[in-house]
Amino acid sequence: MGKYFGTDGFRGEANVTLTVEHAYKVGRFLGWYFGKDKPDQKAHIVIGKDTRRSSYMFEYALVSGLVASGADAYLLHVTTTPSVSYIARVDSFDCGIMISASHNPYYDNGIKLINSDGEKMSEDVIGEIEKYIDGEISIPFANKEHIGKTVDYINGRNRYMGYLIGLAEYSFKGIKVGIDAANGSAWSLAKAVFDALGAHTYVINAEPNGLNINENSGSTHMEALQKLVVDEGLDIGFAFDGDADRCLAVDEKGNILTGDHIIYMYAKHMKARGILKDNTVVCTVMSNFGFLKAMEAEGIDCVVTDVGDKNVYAAMAKNGYRLGGEQSGHIILSKFATTGDGLITAIKLMEVMISSKKSVGSLASGMKEYPQVLINVKVDDKDAAMKNEEVLEEIKKTEKILGKEGRVLVRKSGTEPVVRVMVEAKDDRTCREEAEHLADFIKDKCN
User: Fold this and answer.
1) Cα 184 → chain centroid
2) Distance in angstroms (rounded) separating the CA atoms of residues 221 and 213
3) Would the CA dihedral through 390, 396, 401, 405 be positive or negative?
4) pLDDT, greater one: 233 or 414
5) How far is CA 290 from CA 77, 281, 302, in A?
6) Looking at residue 291, what is its pLDDT?
7) Which helix (H) or strand (E) covers residue 424, if one does?
8) Which region, left, alpha or beta, applies to residue 183 given φ > 0 means left and ψ of -120 to 50 means alpha?
9) How far is C-alpha 437 from the geometric centre of its chain's CA atoms?
10) What integer pLDDT is reported at residue 368 of this predicted model?
11) Separation of CA 235 from chain center
12) Active-site choice (85, 100, 102, 328)
């Protein structure tokens, strides 16, 4: 993790911690970096953005930097992060840029960098960008015919939509589907795709105004979608986040289905078809204990990584695994995408439901979520807290109390001066009591 770029790009409050000057410099560096070894041709870089007001400002700043360094900037306009990844890969761009702060409120924004393979940019390149931002590197301006140009590339976005439609193995005709677009990137894409596949599509939160992205909507606020599904008698509902790289679902009774539920259902589907490599999926340390138990019962192994879809994808790529993701809804199906893609997740979950001829609620019923409590404990030194002998001993005591019917996870935050305490147990009372006890113990011993 660098000075400016974290696990999911350069993110912060617009024009406070992430400024228009930062965006300009990112563009300047990338335009120069990807063109410096091609004296006879320009670098080609594709850009997408979400619907928040500042995304337009950052788009213009990035484009100014890119063309000033001699690159050609191709604009997808409002689109999803996965679409930028897809187009960067299939259209042989030098890199892709997505302007989005994902599920954050409208006043935040971010710059996500994607390489030519559609994967997240390497840390080496990001390290060089940070040096340039801090004035440690000097790069030239392009001039005369070497100045870059801007290209309207809306056709790339349309081709991505065609790709999504082509992934569906079944018609969605007769199925009633609810979509919460979070007033974000999926606001027009999702309905167009589901309509094209024949679904009766009911859409909410698809009127972005630049200030309402993720506001009481989408994958972090599921209440409106739950109500829609129940009130309209829908078969299933899907909720996306601001840039549509994550997806959560709601079953026919209005129950929330997390990323763990979705992986569980699709893993069983893939195993039955004989296409789940090594009968293994990749998940993170935050995956629910009930998910791990359900996978064990199905004879499916789990490779567990640290939090972050970047870590999930790295484990998948290393071993050729085809399914992985996070509880939050970042689901990666490596046959179809190199990153989490909310729309692909929704399409493929529809496939499971249609092929089984069962309701999504019954398909998910084999996974019983364990109660989970997460407490953030502010500490003077999070590294010291994680090495504190008394704390380590208390964690062991809690683990012994829970036995095989629960678990404890204590980890330091990557961005805040806190230690995160997570406890899972079979009942709410035990879960809450043990989590609060451990959190109080850490607070007492580490401050």
Assistant:
1) 14
2) 12
3) positive
4) 233
5) 40, 15, 13
6) 96
7) strand 418-425
8) left
9) 32
10) 93
11) 25
12) 102
Closest residue by Cα to residue 131 from 13, 23, 4, 1: 4
Chain segment 364-375, per-residue pLDDT in tens: 999 999 999 999
C-alpha to C-alpha distance for 42 and 94, rounded to whole angstroms = 10
Backbone angles phi, psi at 63, to 5 degrees: -60, -45
Q: Are 32 and 139 in contact (CB under 8 A)?
A: yes
CB-based contact 13:108 (threshold 8 Å): yes
Structure tokens at 345: 């997740």
Torsion of CA 194, 199, 204, 208, to 10 degrees: 30
The 406-412 sheet, strands edge to edge: 372-378, 418-425, 406-412
> Which of 247, 235, 291, 249 has its CA nearest to residue 268?
291
Q: Which residue has the higher pLDDT, 27 or 406?
A: 27
Q: Which of 133, 121, 423, 118 is nearest to 245 (CA)?
A: 118
pTM of the complete model:
0.92
Burial class (CB in 10 A: 0-12, 13-18, 19+), 178: buried
Q: What secondary structure does DSSP assign to 307-372, as a single string?
A: SSHHHHHHHHHHHT--EEE-TTS-EEETTT-SS--HHHHHHHHHHHHHHHTS-HHHHHTT--PPPE
Find all residues with CB under 8 Å of 392, minimum gap 6, and list them: none
Tokens describing residue 279: 């009968």
Between the alpha carbon of residue 179 and those of residues 14, 97, 100, 190, the distances in Å are 28, 26, 20, 8
Which two tokens mark 361? 């609620």
Active-site residue flag, 102:
yes
Closest CA to 45 of 99, 133, 114, 111: 114
